[in-house]
Specification:
Protein name: NUDIX hydrolase
Helix content: 25-40%
Pfam family, one: His_Phos_1
Strand content: 25-35%
Number of domains: 2
Keywords: Hydrolase
Organism: Plantactinospora alkalitolerans
Number of strands: 14
Low-confidence stretches: 304-309
CATH architecture of the largest domain: 3-Layer(aba) Sandwich
GO molecular function: hydrolase activity
Oligomer: single chain
């Protein structure tokens, strides 16, 4: 018998400061008389991150800012069908979006211990444990590789002037929706035209300028690649030190090497991670002060990410 296609859902562990710690949001569903984390099924063609933010708003009346993608949750629903849920840790940044037709009739903000005891399902308890293991996030950096820009060999002008093609424009539009969720206050780009154009839809959406910074350019001919990677990693750390959220568009050779350097700085014993980044994709980087504590792969396409991706 063929395996059943899992039902896809997304949600969030939404937190807010409280005294010396944090409170998290849990919701009650009268239909099942249970307490759970806010989550819900993806709409057709909906990106999981979009669904996570939407469901938190609709069920808990919270505008959440995604920070770290938590491990995927797999379980069987009451009818035996498999379900997979993508959870994100989210900072509560306001209210709004509640939909009265959802299954939720009560929302509570509780300290982690009380929330853990109230939750009805072991898989939600595990998610809360994954969240509790994270240090407090102080800065978010979205870093993406420029979108599709045709082939270098078919472009007659300077390579730095090569523009996005039709597919690249669509990729840039899709990325803008996702990157806007972290509420960036500044946008930075490597110098090539295709990098600046990749951030243009986001710049228009947020009404913010794109600032060009050559620290995110690929190595020039004769430039040492290690030196280039260290400079890019240093520039990302400088942005993290300021706190808040920013977005950077760079190039493939820069991103993979810079993120490898940041990971090694955060934990020298951590096994090397694959930071290969396709065009029009990227990462959401979460920092605790100067330490990288989360690197969540970001893809503008609607696809189910594996636990290791």
């Amino acid at each position: 018998m063929a395996a059943m296609t899992p039902v896809r859902a997304a949600g969030g562990v939404v937190w807010r400061p409280s005294g010396d710690g944090v409170e998290v949001c849990v919701v009650h569903r009268p239909r099942y008389d249970d307490w759970s984390l806010p989550k819900g099924k993806l709409d057709p063609g909906e990106h999981p991150l979009t669904a996570a933010v939407r469901e938190v708003a609709e069920e808990a009346d919270v505008r959440g800012v995604p920070q770290v993608r938590l491990p995927l949750v797999h379980y069987l629903m009451r009818d035996g069908a498999p379900k997979v849920v993508e959870f994100w840790s989210m900072r509560a940044a306001g209210t709004g979006g509640f939909q009265p037709q959802t299954e939720v009739d009560d929302v509570r903000w509780l300290p982690l211990g009380e929330a853990t005891r109230l939750l009805s399902y072991p898989h939600d308890v595990r998610v809360l444990g994954d969240f509790a293991a994270l240090p407090p996030v102080t800065a978010m950096v979205g870093i993406v590789r420029h979108a599709q820009a045709g082939k270098r060999g078919t472009w007659s002008g300077p390579d730095t002037a090569r523009p996005l093609d039709t597919s690249g424009q669509a990729q840039a539009d899709a990325l803008a929706e996702l990157l806007a969720f972290i509420r960036p206050v500044r946008l930075f780009s490597a110098a090539p035209r295709r990098c600046v154009q990749t951030l243009q839809p986001l710049a228009e959406l947020l009404d913010r300028p794109v600032e060009v910074d050559s620290a995110f350019d690929e190595p020039a001919p004769g430039q040492d690649t290690v030196e280039n990677a260290l400079a890019a990693a240093g520039a990302l750390l400088d942005l993290a030190r300021t706190g808040g959220s920013v977005v950077v568009c760079s190039q493939g050779k820069v991103i993979s090497e810079a993120l490898a350097r940041l990971t090694a700085l955060a934990d020298p014993a951590e096994p090397p991670q694959d930071f290969e980044t396709g065009k029009g994709t990227g990462w959401l980087l979460a920092f605790a002060a100067e330490r990288l504590v989360g690197a969540s792969r970001l893809d503008g396409a609607d696809r189910l990410l594996t636990p290791d991706s």
